[in-house]
Give the backbone structure.
Amino acid sequence: MAEFIDADLTGSRFRQVDLDIYGEIGHVSINGVDVGAWVDAELDRRYPERATMHSTDPGGFRAAWDAVERLWDGTVARARRLDPALLHESVNGEWSFIETLRHLVFATDSWIRRAILGDPSPWDPLDLPWDEMPDTSGVPRDREAKPSLDVVLALRRDRMSSMRSVVDGLTNESLDAHTDPVDAPGWPKPRSYPVRECLLCILNEEWEHRLYAERDLNALETRGP
């Protein structure tokens, strides 16, 4: 199996191949036709809540977060039915279920607690950055940790409450504003960001990683203890 990670395939040619693309798609042209818009429309048709993840106003962001909380409740309930050891298992080299939750804690700490709320160092020791992120002073990256589901969920609930507080307090003015720059090492880099961009980043992370988790739970449910 060939694997491409953070690769620019501009100019590449594929002949007589089976190609299964899974992930966030930017520009994809097939026989000169950009199929990205068609893929987006089809995904919105399959997943009605997905359209809310591209919200443009405060009410839309609140509705989107309502959907995220509800959908993740179902995914976590499904995971709880498995042998707890399986929640630390990787499927096809991807993050385990526990690692996925840890990464979402990292994303919320970065874009909500650091960028929007101004905490220069919001990370918990269990936070998990993406694998290709360069080592950064003060940002934890413990791939060997094996916390229980309940421990990680407690951390998740705390971070998700931070996002809930932000979206519940949104106004048109605050949504169109920029964050104050955080002058400290970490992620995101210490500069100002559009509040809207930070919130959309979290919605995208939550949506995509839940789909990955559901995909991998399909496989884990067929495994023995």
In short: The mean pLDDT is 89. The chain has one domain: 56-220. Residues 78 and 187 are 32 Å apart (CA to CA). The radius of gyration is 19 Å.
